[in-house]
Amino acid sequence: LSIRCRTESVYIETKRCWQFYEKRTLGGRNMNESKIKEFENIIEKDYTNTCGIVVMKDNKLIYENYYNKCDKENKIHIYSITKSIISILIGIAIDKGYIKNIDENILNFFPDYKVQDNEKTIQNIKLKDIMSMIVPYKFKEEPYVEYFTSDNHLKFCLDLLGGDENIGQFRYAPVIGPDILSGVISNSTNQSVLDFARENLFKPLGINIDGNIIFNSAEEQFAFNQSVDINGWVCDKSELNTAGWGLTLSPTDMAKIGQLYLNGGVFNCKKIVSTDWIKKSTSVHSKFNDLSYGYLWWILDKDSFAALGDGGNTLYVNKAKNIVISITSLFVP
Predict the structure, then answer these.
(1) What is the DSSP string of 80-119?
(2) Which of 84, 105, 280, 331 has the most crowded Cβ, counting Cβ within 10 A?
(3) What is the CA radius of gyration of the chain?
(4) Residues 6 or more apart from 28 whose CB is under 8 A from it?
């Protein structure tokens, strides 16, 4: 219920901010300074954890602003937007033939993993099921402490995958579960997730990620969540990068990713991910009440989709308006 309320709140706020911005700021393409100031006053009053906002329309930067002593160089922990980056990497891996297709059984990627004798559900789970959040897990409340202190996130998540419930019911997994997708990328490409991302996504987009981040204490992790100057991607002790959280990006970095999807997988005249994958990943594959979900993307309506992370981190793409909005924010409860 808490996940539902939080997700619906982010969805409503994203849509409300877009409507305000469209009607008050972008009307007629003449940037009205008084309306911009009104918009910025709302941010400063009601969204004090905001770090940066970038807006692109028709492939051009038309607005950017920064808060909390940040500038365009500051990278922020983007939480669940990391999931949508993983979705892009899965698509690239399929494009390049590392992964046959989205219908592959998940256990095909982990031949050395031993399934418990009485475990039946996990044997029928496909890659697309995890990516559309319709797989069951063997817990009611996520065991966060055990996960964060585990040396091997992949095995931890695989051990909790499955259970008594059926495949097909939407169950959003914020942290525990998505790391299985990191294992899929790493095992199928024989590269670390970060190395594969650098080569096939980040470098072509001009995005720099310094390296892996490993926490040695809870205090280090808490500091990371409030940092505005740590550049990297969290990984466990086995150097498997996280899939549900843990990546840092700037608003400009995210805007490039949004523009990549808006332009059909092309950036600077180079094809990075197939148009077919973009269409598939941003189509509806599961639903939770009035919310629709693709392959690790939230589908808002027929023309728009978004990557959403805790604290208000947002990457919003509207095909009809030819617009991309990216927002980085610090975590607040």
Answers:
(1) THHHHHHHHHHHHHHHTTSS--TTSBGGGG-TTPPPPTT-
(2) 84
(3) 19
(4) none
